Amino acid sequence: MNSAISVTTLNTQIKSLLETTFINVYVEGEISNLTYHNSGHIYFSIKDENSTISCVMFKGNAKYLKFRLEVGQKIVINGTITVYTPRGNYQLLCNKIEPSGQGALALAYEQLKAKLQAKGYFETSIKKALPKYPKKIALVTSPTGAAIEDMKKVATHRWPLVELVLVPTLVQGEESKYDIVTSIKYAQTLDVDLIVVGRGGGSIEDLWAFNEEIVATAIFECNKPVISAVGHEIDFLISDFVADIRAATPSNAMEIALPDINEHRIYLDTLSSEFKTRLKNQLSSKQSLLDNMKNLFEQNSIKAKFTFIDEQIKLLKTNFDNYLKSLINTKQSGIDLLKSSFLSNHPDKKDLKGYAQVTIDNKITKLDELKPEDIIALQSPKTIVSCKVISVKKQ
């Protein structure tokens, strides 16, 4: 198990990651929560329909600002992501701010976007699905740009089984739109599973070829799935809307197009573990069933029945012996009791001075039952005296 790290360490690592990744970004949004501080710094937020990010422009850059910021104003910021470690907050550190306005290119972009949308170029229902495990991918991009190296690197790491086919293409300049169209048409004739059209980041002028109608039409009419991977994540080109899939960057295009081999390795390991577990459980279950059947067979075998009968006979014999012993003991106890009573009542035991047994006709009689003139006998173990009752006095 990995050891835990401190909050400070985590925030420091996040700070390092964000500040080295988002070094020079362009962000467009609407101003809110605006504060001009006495120090000369400007604090505010920018937002769109779904998100908000905190921003700061320090005095050193704020003094070059040509206009006053206002709440509700739409602007474009060039800046860097920075993290305030003690609180774990991140914000956009603004280097330059420009008002967001429609120039000639922006207007052309909106007009073409509306036109193509009306023609159905952006309909999601006609988008082609990407193959799950592409064997061969055509890359319509510059052979010398950073984009091709980034895509090769990601593809090699993510899914080494794929084959990349480079279609060298001019991706910047006035003639680039024609070369892009030619390359797309050529790529769809190849034995490839999908096509990636793109290039690295740049200015709107550098990326403008991917906002041309003939490029959009070539992508729309392509008979193979197309991924548009132009510029950075903040860049949205006409090609992004027409393509079957839009990738934030060329590297992201490879992440979208290719499965992750490590995930599949983990998945295969999981399947292997599940298979072993299920096999073990099945074998254990069958072994238990076999043991139960064996026990049941042994319990119902001739040998088991004879053993059971033999045990019953032994039990009966034991019970009989115990009963006979108990009966003898009971009778012996009765005899011993009679013997004890006999011995305790033996005439020899009753020869006490001053005591004699009164009988009439050899029958023991109580004194209070005697009447005058009765002839009685007074008897001890050794002597018998015949007497006549003279009187009876009761107390």
Automatic annotation (TrEMBL):
Transmembrane segments: none
Residues covered by the Exonuclease VII large subunit C-terminal domain: 121-349
An MF annotation (GO) of this entry: exodeoxyribonuclease VII activity
Superkingdom per UniProt: Bacteria
Chief site of localization: cytoplasm
GO biological process: DNA catabolic process
Compartments in which it is found: Cytoplasm
Residue span, OB-fold nucleic acid binding domain: 5-98
Keywords, alphabetical: Cytoplasm, Exonuclease, Hydrolase, Nuclease
GO cellular component terms listed in the entry, alphabetical order: cytoplasm; exodeoxyribonuclease VII complex
Reaction equation(s) it catalyzes: Exonucleolytic cleavage in either 5'- to 3'- or 3'- to 5'-direction to yield nucleoside 5'-phosphates
Enzyme class: hydrolase
Protein EC: 3.1.11.6
Recorded coiled-coil stretches: none
Subunit-structure text: Heterooligomer composed of large and small subunits.
Described purpose of this protein according to its UniProt entry: Bidirectionally degrades single-stranded DNA into large acid-insoluble oligonucleotides, which are then degraded further into small acid-soluble oligonucleotides.
Recorded family membership: Belongs to the XseA family.
HAMAP family referenced in this protein's UniProt entry, alphabetically: Exonuc_7_L
Name the UniProt record assigns to this protein: Exodeoxyribonuclease 7 large subunit
Protein species of origin: Halarcobacter anaerophilus
Gene: xseA
